[in-house]
Amino acid sequence: MSFTIATWNINSVRLREPLVARLMEEEAPDILCLQECKSPVDKIPLERFEALGYRHVIARGQKSYNGVAIFSKLPMKEAAAWDFGDLGHARHIAGRLENGVTIHNFYVPAGGDKPDRMSNEKFDQKLDFLAEMRGWFRCAPPERAILVGDLNIAPLEEDVYDTKKLARVVSHTAVEREALEGLRKVGGFVDITRAHIPDGKLYSWWTYRQPDWESADRGRRLDHVWATEDIAEAAHSSRILRHARGWEQPSDHAPVFATFDL
Q1: How many CA atoms are closer than 13 Å to the CA of 127, on its beta-carbon side?
Q2: What are 196-209's pLDDT values in tens digits?
Q3: How many CA atoms does the CB half-sphere of 93 hold within 13 Å?
Q4: Using CB atoms within 10 A of its CB, is residue 118 exposed (0-12), middle (13-18) or buried (19+)?
Q5: Count of H helices and E strands in the chain?
Q6: What's the CA gap between 129 and 125, in Å, rounded?
Q7: Per residue in 3-24, pLDDT tens?
Q8: What angle do CA 40, 96, 50 make, to 5 degrees?
Q9: Does domain 2-261 have CATH number 3.40.50.300?
Q10: Residue 111 backbone class (left: φ over 0; alpha: ψ -120 to 50; beta: rest)
Q11: Does residue 235 contact residue 173 with C-beta atoms inside 8 Å?
């Protein structure tokens, strides 16, 4: 079975319903994972997305904040939904396909503005969230699993426009990068996007604060597709739909894609 998966921080699924529908129509991924839906599940425009072929939905919602959802053309059952960090936030959902592949959709906390545990509670929560993720996958090593989402960390020097300038900026600090790499190793995951696009700068997020985002191109790769080693070689055709960042009233993130033959 071959399927394409996409992950996208949509920054309000109701506000950007037309963009989600456009992606479903023009790109037609078999599975679409959204983060930062900012909506209770019963307020998500499910009927419109179902009419476009996405009949299987698992989600955790929250009014105005957070929220994760998986829309699938393929039959899928909920496998897990964990409150990492005990924050009471809707930041994780997992679904299992009929072929046994489990898909984890994560929205890791952004971490605030200051990279300091003592003075910034949000940064403290982010590191604790990542630590609990590591512990979770250490206790239950994943098999035939795909992990996607807005992980809010750009792990490699080539994943930001200037690694020296951003070395003390939340999302690219050494402590965050080390935490993410520790998580990847504990789970036995392969960074699929970078496995397919190993060279050069690669971004999935550009700040709203820069209207000329495309020409300035000061981005970061915060959105990821990983797979466990047992299925990583079945992945191909990774890409970032950069031009979606330029759609009308866009999210500040662009969708990230990969295809699996399993």
Answers
A1: 17
A2: 999 999 999 999 99
A3: 26
A4: exposed
A5: 7, 12
A6: 6
A7: 999 999 999 999 999 999 999 9
A8: 50
A9: no
A10: left
A11: no
